[in-house]
């Protein structure tokens, strides 16, 4: 510790940072969400597109490329308009004080459907829901039906 005292903590380590993507349609003022089985809470929850940024094995050359791949794979969407939701594209934010995982957050605007998307990972059970209004989106967050990383990304995107 900074005061030279020694303590032991359990720190969750994922090994790679993650990306989170809030897809927003500026014309319709709606979003696309995933309803996905999430193993930690052992339930289906709403969320945004998210995935591991695998830079160490060369799968992704940047966090943005990872976000693009995940958007296509999970939501079957593609965007030409990307905005980093933190200071810049290199910025990331820690998950919490007992994790070394970091998140790169993006806003993907006016996405288009992809006819032949990248394959999903075998362990993903996802339903895609389009045209979700801002009111319903905020209600889902407030009822606790969405994980914190997705909720935070959405709230930054709305801002």
Short description:
The protein is α+β, with helices and mostly antiparallel strands and 159 residues long. The protein has helices at 63-75, 134-142, 148-158, and strands at residues 18-25, 30-38, 43-47, 49-52, 77-78, 81-84, 93-94, 102-109, 112-113, 126-133.
Note the topology:
Blueprint: E1 18-25, E2 30-38, E3 43-47, E4 49-52, H1 63-75, E5 77-78, E6 81-84, E7 93-94, E8 102-109, E9 112-113, E10 126-133, H2 134-142, H3 148-158
Plain-language structure description:
The chain contains 3 helices and 10 strands. By secondary structure, it is α+β, with helices and mostly antiparallel strands. The mean pLDDT is about 95.
Q: What portion of the residues fall into strands of 2 or more residues? A: 25-35%
* Low-confidence segments: none
What is the general shape? globular
Largest sheet: 8 strands, mixed
> How many H/I helical runs?
3
Distance between the termini: 35 Å
The class by helix and strand makeup works out as: alpha+beta
Helix percent reads 10-25%
Q: What is the averaged pLDDT score?
A: 93
Give the SSE string.
Answer: EEEEHEEEEEEHH
Rg calc: 16 Å
In total, how many beta strands?
10
